[in-house]
TrEMBL record:
Coiled coil (residue ranges): 23-54
Keyword Coiled coil: yes
Protein name (Swiss-Prot/TrEMBL): Homeodomain-like DNA binding domain-containing transcription factor
Domain of life where this protein originates: Eukaryota
Keywords associated with the record: Coiled coil
């Protein structure tokens, strides 16, 4: 056997040993990775248990707080009903400007001066003008009565009136069933209708 053959055999032995070493390293790496995965799983299980325990504690605290609030705080419906202003008379068409001024003064605590009266008139006129320009009202003819206007449109316009009044510092939205805005808008519309009818 010559030197070349000896060198080749030595090289093959070295390569074989290297392959065995690599395989052993891979096996060791696999075992280490498996151990790390198991450790992570254990940590996750512990974390989930801790998290569930914290959630249970928080839920218990919230339930206790809700029970405490029910005993100490008034309900939302009680608060809202205390703030609402009921209709002054049973028959809607009998609500007058005096009733509305009295509501502004006594229920809202606002002194009725020329400024408040001007605000009310301006907001009411604005809503009536907007309603008169609405396509469904135009379709009714040149001078439709209050009763002929669609109910949904009247409700929408009167709700807008209440919001405009509120934005102007006079909270008509507190009126139950929006009676104040509806009364004023209906009254001004009927007045316009009568005036136009009398001109014919």
């Amino acid at each position: 056997m010559n030197n070349t053959d000896n060198n080749s055999i030595s090289l093959l032995h070295a390569m074989y040993n290297e392959i065995l070493s690599l395989k052993a390293g891979q096996e060791k790496a696999k075992l280490e990775m498996k151990a790390q995965i198991e450790e992570l799983k254990l940590e996750m299980k512990t974390s989930i248990k801790d998290l569930n325990l914290e959630i249970t504690v928080l839920q218990s605290q919230l339930e206790n707080r809700n029970i405490s609030n029910q005993h100490t705080s008034p309900s939302v419906s009680a608060i809202s009903s205390a703030n609402t202003i009921c209709k002054p008379v049973s028959i809607f068409r009998e609500i007058t400007l005096k009733h509305i001024f009295k509501m502004i003064s006594e229920d809202l605590g606002i002194e009725v001066t020329s400024n408040e009266k001007a605000t009310l008139n301006m907001c009411t006129k604005l809503i009536c003008d907007d309603m008169a320009a609405h396509p469904s009202v135009i379709a009714l003819g040149p001078n439709p009565s209050w009763g002929s206007i669609p109910v949904a449109l009247k409700k929408e316009m009167c709700a807008r009136h209440a919001n405009i009044m509120k934005d102007s510092g006079i909270d008509f939205t507190r009126c139950l069933g929006n009676w104040a805005s509806t009364a004023r808008v209906a009254h001004l519309w009927r007045d316009r209708h009568k005036r136009l009818q009398s001109r014919k």
